[in-house]
Specification:
The structure holds two protein chains of two kinds. By secondary structure, chain A is α+β, with helices and mostly antiparallel strands. Chain A is about 55% helix and about 10% strand. Chain A starts with a helix and ends with a helix. Chain B contains 13 helices and eight strands. A four-stranded mixed β-sheet of chain B has the order 1-4-5-8, with helices on one face. Classes of the chains: A alpha+beta, B alpha+beta. Chains A and B meet through helix 7, helix 8, helix 9, helix 11 and helix 12 of A and helix 9, helix 10, helix 11 and helix 13 of B.
């Protein structure tokens, strides 16, 4: 049952994916040993069918696992690999060992392919990218890698020859929505981590002879954090509402837009409550708030997805807005 | 971890969702031709004839047992019904409080005689209730209410005053939170809920004009009002707990999301025209959807908990605070959108609707518990010591 799987992954990450490990991999320590550990645990095959050796979870069932990747700031694309392997399995293809990042790509002027701002692009083994009527599984090692803004991200470019030798997965797939979906789930996890830590801090930190959580201003800020966190989590769950492996674009729009809005607010409020100590590198809060910003920015910030929803509501529907709300939230 | 971890996506059961078609068909006919600025009043629109018609259709008291004239349906059925009413801007104000919380309160705490007396007329849409809680010096600090009912041979003698009582001037009864024992220092202890027949001698109802020019709420004065013994609902001195449970009903429904929805749909109709469509407007429309959709899901999840007999007070408060934020964002953002355009493009009816909602918007986060009180409650409910 997926509760057991969720608990097992939570335990594994609590034990192995420590803030120390996250810092080390961000600083450039090889990610391969940690990935190997995850690979051996089997979680990367959670959405691969049972006949093919996985746990056969749907996207909806896999949400708690994807969310945990954010809660523990997992510095490798475990969430992305879970959904990418489902894509490969569903197409009847072998899944190579190694982690898979999802990316949007464009043809480069030299005839090859370029993927800008690949989340986890610096540590992934493979990159799954959509190109027209097919998808490509490209080896990250063979790309020219230049740093992007977030330490684990990269811009990756392959030559024409490199592209030729990539594995092809026939069929047009909305990989941008898939990527936004798993980032929204990780945002949900990171928001929960920040909320929990900030609540703890407000209870533990004493000033003026009492915990700072006794002050109304702090209570209100925490309340706002919790509101965004739970609305974002609901939105991320909505994004994963799919019986199959691929999400619904409009639900993803709700998920990515709402989690991104929440990320901005919660990052700011959590730093406000933590005061100066939360501003240090040594304190763990920054591991999460940097991710809140990075994931808000990745795969379309909120305005992009607001545009997607707005186009649907304005251009493709008549009648009550309620009916679009129902379409995205009904189960 | 916390109470909110169990707030997960919940489906409306198909048998309850099935109500929607019939209700929508009725509303589409009933509200045809009613201008947006009137429909925008939402549940502040009073129409006792409309309420009686809904009663005749069996659409009031939907969750109450059939033996008392109710529909015997689940909270989800009521959710679907109310969602349609609000999105069409139907004038449900007369029966609103009776149906939403007074009848469920009487069902939960009332004697058999009280249930048989009060509930059937509520279900018929013939009996309207208001809530007597706030007083001039007891708003957020509700436990400091001073209205007092002293027991006598025949029942109670009530003295005091209530204020901000929505629709009291159109109601038959008030359920009032009053002190029946102890002193003010006892605060939550010694308070009771009494059903007050507003026609009794000694009751004076005075409507208060609000800044939009309407008179929805009232002052109500009690001058030696003689109440029968069975005016007491529930247990003497247990009024505070009863009120707190009532609040979960009051705060959990779709009305915390849709106070501005008639305005939003009216604006949308404009944005869907060639002269109305802009990129900014599209993104604003999408932003509102992205905020409302998760809230709808959370609101349904809270309904699911009510259906299981739980009392999701913190969850309901959280949904209310977020929901009223979106309700207030809608007129503010639409105003910026419309008034940055050329004036000749904008339909007047849309501007009237916007003006009305703009004026009443502050009340969204005041009624049913102010934002400040709710946020303190949420924080403490989530584990802040």
């Amino acid at each position: 049952m997926d509760d057991l799987l969720t608990d097992a992954l939570r335990q594994l990450l609590a034990d192995q994916c420590t803030p120390q490990l996250v810092r080390e991999i961000e600083a450039g320590r090889p990610a391969a040993p940690f990935w190997k550990l995850l690979e051996e645990s089997g979680f990367a095959d959670a959405m691969v069918s049972e006949e093919m050796g996985g746990a056969g979870l749907s996207l909806a069932d896999a949400f708690p696992l994807l969310e945990l990747c954010g809660t523990y700031a997992v510095p490798v694309p475990l969430a992305e690999t879970i959904v990418a392997r489902a894509v490969l399995a569903q197409a009847g293809l072998e899944r190579p060992p190694g982690s898979i990042a999802l990316a949007e790509c464009a043809a480069s002027t030299q005839g090859g392919l370029r993927c800008d701002r690949v989340s986890f692009g610096r540590v992934a083994d493979w990159v799954l990218a959509a190109r027209g009527s097919e998808c490509l599984l490209l080896p990250a090692r063979e790309a020219e890698s230049t740093p992007a803004v977030f330490p684990l991200d990269a811009r990756l470019a392959w030559t024409e020859a490199g592209v030729e030798s990539a594995l092809r997965i026939p069929g047009e797939r909305d990989l941008l929505s898939l990527r936004a979906c798993v980032i929204a789930a990780q945002l949900s996890g990171a928001l929960m981590a920040v909320f929990t830590r900030t609540l703890q801090y407000a209870n533990d930190r004493n000033q003026f002879g009492r915990p700072i959580g006794k002050f109304q201003a702090i209570q209100h800020q925490l309340s706002v954090i919790s509101e965004h966190t739970f609305a974002a989590r609901t939105a991320a769950q909505i994004g994963c509402q799919s019986d199959g492996g691929m999400p619904d674009r409009l639900r993803v729009a709700v998920a990515k837009a709402r989690t991104s809005e929440a990320a901005l607010e919660v990052a700011a409020l959590s730093h406000s409550i933590h005061g100066a100590i939360g501003f240090t590198e040594e304190f763990d809060l920054q591991l999460y708030t940097r991710r809140l910003h990075a994931w808000r920015q990745a795969a379309g910030s909120e305005s992009y997805w607001h545009g997607v929803l707005g186009e649907e509501l304005v251009d493709r529907r008549s009648g009550l807005a309620l009916d679009l709300l129902r379409a995205t939230t009904d189960m | 971890m916390s109470a909110l971890d169990s707030l997960s996506l919940t489906a409306i059961p198909p048998e309850d969702e099935a109500l929607r078609g019939e209700v929508r068909e009725f509303l589409a006919r009933a509200m045809q031709g009613v201008p947006a600025h009137v429909r925008a009043k939402s549940w502040s629109g009073y129409d006792s004839a409309f309420s009686r018609e809904l009663g005749r259709k069996g659409w009031l008291g939907l969750t109450l047992p059939k033996e008392y004239g109710g529909g015997g349906r689940s909270p989800y059925a009521r959710y679907v019904m109310v969602e349609e009413f609000l999105n069409f801007g139907a004038p449900v104000g007369s029966h609103w409080i009776a149906d939403r919380q007074s009848a469920p309160l009487i069902l939960k705490y009332g004697s058999e005689a009280q249930k048989r007396f009060y509930i059937p007329p509520i279900c018929r849409g013939e009996s309207f209730f208001c809530i007597g809680m706030s007083e001039p010096n007891a708003g957020s600090d509700l436990a400091s209410v001073k209205a007092r009912a002293i027991p006598d041979a025949n029942g109670w003698i009530l003295n005091g005053q209530k204020i901000w009582t929505t629709n009291a001037h159109n109601c038959h009864y008030m359920i009032a939170l009053v002190r029946t024992s102890g002193t003010a220092e006892d605060r939550q202890k010694g308070l009771s809920q009494l059903i007050v027949d507003l026609k009794l001698p000694g009751v004076t109802v005075r409507p208060i004009r609000d800044l939009s020019g309407e008179s929805h709420f009232c002052e109500v004065f009690f001058d030696n009002v003689r109440l029968p013994a069975d005016a007491l609902i529930g247990a003497e001195g247990k009024g505070w707990e009863q009120v707190t449970a009532e609040l979960a009903f009051e705060r959990s429904g779709p009305e915390r999301l849709y106070s501005s929805i008639v305005l939003f749909d009216e604006w949308l109709a404009f944005v869907r025209t060639p002269q109305g469509r802009t990129r900014e407007a599209l993104e604003l429309a999408g932003r509102i959807v992205a905020q409302l959709a998760p809230l709808r899901a959370m609101s349904i999840a809270v309904t699911g908990k009510l259906a299981k007999g739980e009392s999701p007070i913190v969850e309901a408060a959280l949904v209310k605070d977020l929901g009223t934020g979106v309700e207030q964002l809608i007129p503010a953002a639409i105003a910026d959108d419309l008034y940055s355009r050329q004036p000749q493009d904008i339909p007047m009816e849309l501007l009237h609707t916007l003006d009305y909602v703009t004026q009443v918007a502050p009340s969204f986060s005041l009624r049913g518990g102010t934002r400040d009180i709710l946020r303190g409650m949420i924080a403490r409910g989530l584990g802040l010591r």
